[in-house]
Specification:
single chain, alpha/beta, Rossmann fold, eight-stranded mixed sheet, 11 helices, 10 strands, about 40% helix, about 20% strand
């Protein structure tokens, strides 16, 4: 752990009142108050360049440096193995396999995909969270990276995650899981890709995952109202950043209406996997996450939806420095476990 990381943790361990004073005036929108520790992150980030002004390479380095200061502690006891998974074109994709303590081979498998707008991030982005999920949900977690834009534009990320999920289903037992309960999940772009996997399985007449875990997912890239307006300048995701991601990920604007980009735009949603959908109060994507939950529910899908009002986008990476994020992740993992246990 670097000295800068140690200092960050010391600062964030101070009482909330002191941290809020360091952050400045409380951030309040629509009757919600942003967690003071995230507010402090936002105030510090505001001193640097906007991510939407950076190149993908610069944004990737900046994200990795930021995450390195706040998100580098795996859950003790979880075994982590590096491996590769074949992409749609056969290219090996980096992946990490997390096995909980005392595993017997009868655990469920969760295939997980990271955040980053299909442009930035990697398996490291959700490393800590995947270890928590494995430990708390008593599940084997396969954290798969996928090709990123602009080097590999749409539909490369979709094709890779579909291929990775199919490979995981076929190899679940060799990965140490029971081979019967196979869930899919992700945060932000990973949540969007997980929703697409469920829709694609339905279209292809394949079995649905046991569960779909969607954490602050992007489900409609055409969305313009709601929190896309009220939280347009939220931290760490803004409306401008969403356009930056789209500009690098998509080949042209018309693809925003493709169901593989915006699964919420499909006319039918019956018969999809049970869904656990979670959003954050301070996030441009909150409205579409809530709307997708309601859309699935109206079409007979078993849905649990929660919004963590004081948290922001990317809270899956904040658990080591934001107590409210840690509480949220423990609750999410517990609800994942309950759903998977019920499916045994």
């Amino acid at each position: 752990m670097s000295l800068q990381s140690v200092m960050t943790r010391i600062i964030f361990s101070l009482p909330s009142g002191i941290i809020q004073a360091m952050a400045g005036k409380k951030t309040e929108v629509d009757g919600k108050t942003l967690d003071p520790r995230i507010a402090l992150m936002a105030s510090q980030a505001a001193k640097g360049p906007k991510m939407s002004s950076l190149s993908p390479a610069q944004a990737r380095e900046g994200m990795k440096a930021a995450f390195g200061m706040i998100d580098n502690k795996r859950r003790a006891g979880v075994t982590v193995k590096e491996l590769t998974v074949p992409a749609a074109d056969g290219t090996p994709l980096e992946a990490r396999l997390y096995t909980p303590p005392g595993a017997t081979g009868n655990e469920p498998l969760i295939v997980y995909f990271h955040q980053g707008g299909c442009v930035i991030g990697g398996a490291w982005t959700c490393d800590n969270w995947c270890s928590i999920l494995s430990d708390e949900a008593k599940a084997v977690v396969l954290n798969v990276d996928y090709r990123h834009a602009p080097e590999a534009k749409f539909p490369a990320s979709v094709d890779d995650t579909l291929a990775a999920y199919d490979w995981a289903r076929a190899n679940a037992k060799s990965l140490g899981a029971d081979g019967k309960r196979i869930a899919v999940g992700g945060d932000s772009a990973g949540g969007y890709l997980s929703a697409v996997i469920c829709q694609a399985a339905k279209k292809a007449g394949k079995p649905q995952p046991t569960l779909q875990l969607l954490i602050y997912p992007c489900t409609d890239w055409t969305a313009e109202g709601g929190t896309m307006v009220t939280m347009a300048d939220a931290y760490p995701l803004t409306k401008d950043m969403m356009e930056w991601f789209a500009g690098h990920y998509l080949n042209d604007e018309s693809e925003k209406s493709d169901w593989r980009v915006s699964p919420a735009l499909l006319p039918e949603h019956e018969g999809l996997a049970p869904a656990l959908i979670y959003t954050a109060g301070f996030d441009p994507l909150t409205s579409q996450g809530a709307a997708y939950a309601e859309l699935l529910r109206k079409n007979g899908v078993d849905v649990t939806y929660r919004c963590y009002d004081t948290l922001s986008h990317s809270f899956t990476a904040f658990s080591t420095v934001v107590p409210a994020a840690k509480t949220a992740l423990n609750q999410i993992a517990a609800e994942v476990k309950a759903k998977l246990d019920a499916a045994a």
